[in-house]
Specification:
Protein name: Integrase catalytic domain-containing protein
Helix content: 25-40%
Number of helices: 8
CATH superfamily of the largest domain: Ribonuclease H-like superfamily/Ribonuclease H
Shape: elongated
Order of helices and strands: HHHEEEHEHHEHHEEEE
Structural class: alpha/beta
Largest sheet: 5 strands, mixed
Strand order of the largest sheet: 3-2-1-4-5
Organism: marine sediment metagenome
GO molecular function: nucleic acid binding
Distance between the termini: 83 Å
CATH topology of the largest domain: Nucleotidyltransferase, domain 5
Strand content: 5-15%
């Protein structure tokens, strides 16, 4: 039987639901899921999808409108079959749409900035983000600078929280992994499906994976997104605003008497018209 042969050879690692979709997408074989399940189970084939025992916990209701809250997280996993690599991601709380994915060699500010860039470019600026208390998002230092106090801040900024503040996005810390249920479930689904997609499409390196995922997100959202109750709350980036000047690291330095400052062991001097620039004392 062709279906059994394809499952055991070409698509051996896929679960039954994913296999049914791939049959229609790649082999032009349109069968219902119950039919595929019956054929495979009749030959003793079992779906590899793991059934985890879930403990009962408080369920948090979805937000009504897309863009009201976006969950951010990273999942270290053997996405390319070798060593563990963290996949950075953002998922909309109301619709379960993936808003951005980016694979790096380690969990970094750069990875989350890239996810934010994809989100803003494809959907818009959300009202709030929801994440764990990783130091990329929230500073462990409670001490504020004089500038922070004058601006009315109640906690020290990280580079990411500073960027979100410039965009007008509120950041909400999650108290536990269970509180981030939707993004945690996303990782389980991607671990089950994305690895197979990488393999079927010959994806073997980080650069190719990131390029592939930008297209895969659309496919995933068509399959798994839910219809939200309300209209999107995402905001468009204002005209004339360069996102590169926001999603970046900004470091403060003091000028000395010679209109110069040091940064990472190098010395820089402000010059205007071939002369040392005058600065306000």
């Amino acid at each position: 039987d062709l279906v059994v042969e394809l499952k055991t050879k070409k698509y051996w690692g896929t679960n039954f639901s994913h296999f049914t979709e791939l049959l229609a997408e790649r082999e032009s074989i349109a069968l219902s899921q119950p039919t595929v399940h019956r054929i495979l189970r009749g030959t003793g084939i079992v779906s590899p999808k793991k059934k985890k025992k879930i403990r009962a916990h408080w369920y948090r209701k979805r937000k009504d409108c897309p863009g009201m809250m976006v969950q951010l997280d990273a999942s270290p996993y053997r996405w390319l079959g070798g060593s563990k690599l963290p996949l950075h991601g953002a998922i909309d709380d109301a619709s379960s749409n993936i808003l951005g994915l980016h694979l790096c060699k380690e969990e970094t500010l750069k990875g989350y900035f890239e996810v934010a860039r994809q989100m803003i470019g494809g959907f818009g600026i959300p009202i709030s983000t929801y994440s764990d208390k990783h130091t990329i998002f929230f500073s462990p230092k409670g001490k504020l600078t004089i500038e922070d106090q004058l601006e009315g801040r109640t906690s020290a900024n990280t580079q990411f929280s500073r960027a979100m503040s410039e965009l007008g996005v509120s950041m909400i810390p999650a108290g536990s992994p269970q509180a981030k249920g939707r993004v945690e479930r996303l990782w389980g689904t991607l671990q089950d499906r994305l690895i197979q997609e990488f393999s079927l499409n010959g994806i073997k390196d980080v650069e190719s994976a990131n390029k592939f995922m930008k297209k895969y997100i659309k496919k995933f959202n068509r399959r798994f997104s839910v219809v939200p109750k309300g209209e999107p709350a995402f905001r468009k980036l204002g005209k004339g605003i360069n996102l590169d000047y926001i999603l970046c690291s900004k470091i403060s330095r003091k000028l000395d008497g010679g209109s110069a400052f040091s940064y990472r062991g190098k010395y820089f001097q402000l010059v205007s018209g071939g002369k040392v620039a005058a600065t306000i004392p």
